[in-house]
C-alpha cells in the first residue's frame, strides 16, 4: 500500500515528465485494468480523449493517461504523461514487483554444477546447469531449463521454463564416405543484461565463436536461435520465430511472430519484420518487410 505522493516522488526520481491532479494523499492498494476498475487501485488508458461514460469507480482510482483535455476526468486523481503505458508499468514494477521478488533460491530438485552463480539468482525445479556456466546476479531461471557448456548470462536476465541453452546446433558436413557428419561446436552462448528468453526456446552454442544475445533483448516463447547468431541490443523477437545460423540481427529490430530468417544474412538496425515473414536476403536498416519471401513495404 502506498499513496500518490510516493508515486510522484518515484516519477521525479526517474525523470519522467508528468502533471498531477487530485488528492496527493490518495491511497493505492493494488492495480486494475481500464475494463475492470477497482476502488483504490491504479490504472491506465492510452488516450484520455477517448475516455467516455466512465464508471463512478474511476472517482476512486489513480489514473495514468496521456496529456489531453477531457472534462470528464477533471475531478479525478490523474497522472498526465507522454507515455502512459510505459509510466504505468514502471510504477507497477517499482511498487509491486520489486516488493515480491525473492532472495536467491536454488530448488533442491535442480542440478547445479557451476560455482559461478550470482547473488539473488533464483533457479527453479528440475533445472540442469553445467559446470562451465556463469550466471550474473538477480537472474531468474524457470523450471525444467537446461544450460550447458560455456554459457554466460548477464545480470537480471530471465530464462523462462523449458528453455535449452548451449546445445549444439544443426550443422553437418559430408565426410570422405559421403555421409553426414556433425560439425563440432566449440563456442558458447553469451547472454547480456536484462535479457528475457521465453518458455521452450532453444539457443544453440556457436561453432567457433559465441552465439550472442546482447543487453535488453526480449525473445518470445517457442523460438529457435541457431549457432553463431548475433542479436544486438534492445531488439524484440516474437514467439515462434526461427533465426538460422550465423545471422546478424541489428539494434532495436522487431521480428514478428512466426518469422523465419535464413542463415548468414543481416537484418539492419531499427528494421521491422512482419509476422510470418520468410526473410531470405539482407534487410536494410530502418526498413519494413512483410510476406513470403519478405519484401519491403
Automatic annotation (TrEMBL):
Q: Which PROSITE patterns match?
A: HEXAPEP_TRANSFERASES
Q: What is this protein called?
A: UDP-3-O-[3-hydroxymyristoyl] glucosamine N-acyltransferase
The entry's keywords: Acyltransferase, Lipid A biosynthesis, Lipid biosynthesis, Lipid metabolism, Repeat, Transferase
Q: Which Gene3D superfamilies match?
A: Hexapeptide repeat proteins (2.160.10.10)
Q: Does the keyword Lipid biosynthesis apply?
A: yes
The source organism is Bhargavaea beijingensis
Q: SUPFAM superfamilies, alphabetically?
A: Trimeric LpxA-like enzymes
Gene Ontology molecular functions: N-acyltransferase activity
The signal peptide here is none
A GO CC term assigned to this protein in UniProt: membrane
Against Pfam families, the record matches this protein to: Hexapep
State the Gene Ontology BP annotations.
lipid A biosynthetic process
Q: Which domain of life is it from?
A: Bacteria
Amino acid at each position: 500500500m502506498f499513496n500518490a505522493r510516493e508515486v510522484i516522488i518515484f516519477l521525479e526520481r526517474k525523470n519522467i515528465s508528468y502533471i498531477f491532479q487530485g488528492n496527493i494523499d490518495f491511497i493505492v492498494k493494488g492495480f486494475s485494468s481500464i475494463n475492470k476498475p477497482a476502488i483504490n487501485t491504479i490504472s491506465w488508458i492510452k488516450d484520455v480523449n477517448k475516455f467516455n461514460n466512465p464508471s463512478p469507480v474511476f472517482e476512486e482510482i489513480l489514473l495514468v493517461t496521456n496529456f489531453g483535455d477531457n472534462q470528464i476526468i477533471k475531478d479525478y486523481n490523474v497522472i498526465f504523461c507522454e507515455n502512459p503505458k510505459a509510466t504505468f508499468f514502471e510504477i507497477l514494477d517499482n511498487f509491486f514487483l520489486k516488493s515480491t521478488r525473492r532472495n536467491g533460491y536454488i530448488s533442491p530438485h535442480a542440478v547445479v554444477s557451476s560455482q559461478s552463480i550470482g547473488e539473488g539468482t533464483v533457479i527453479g525445479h528440475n533445472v540442469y546447469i553445467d559446470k562451465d556456466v556463469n550466471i550474473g546476479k538477480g537472474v531468474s531461471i524457470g523450471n525444467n531449463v537446461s544450460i550447458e557448456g560455456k554459457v554466460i548470462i548477464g545480470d537480471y536476465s530471465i530464462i523462462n521454463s523449458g528453455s535449452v541453452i548451449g546445445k549444439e546446433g544443426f550443422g553437418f558436413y559430408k565426410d570422405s564416405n559421403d555421409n553426414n557428419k556433425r560439425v563440432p561446436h566449440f563456442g558458447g552462448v553469451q547472454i547480456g543484461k536484462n535479457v528475457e528468453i521465453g518458455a521452450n526456446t532453444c539457443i544453440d552454442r556457436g561453432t567457433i565463436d559465441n552465439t550472442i544475445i546482447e543487453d535488453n533483448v526480449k525473445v518470445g516463447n517457442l523460438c529457435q536461435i541457431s549457432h553463431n547468431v548475433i542479436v544486438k541490443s534492445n531488439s524484440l523477437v516474437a514467439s515462434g520465430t526461427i533465426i538460422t545460423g550465423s545471422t546478424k540481427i541489428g539494434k532495436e529490430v522487431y521480428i514478428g511472430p512466426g518469422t523465419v530468417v535464413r542463415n548468414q544474412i543481416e537484418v539492419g538496425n531499427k528494421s521491422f519484420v512482419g509476422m510470418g515473414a520468410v526473410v531470405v536476403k539482407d534487410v536494410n536498416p530502418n526498413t519494413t518487410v512483410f510476406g513470403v519471401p519478405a519484401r519491403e513495404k
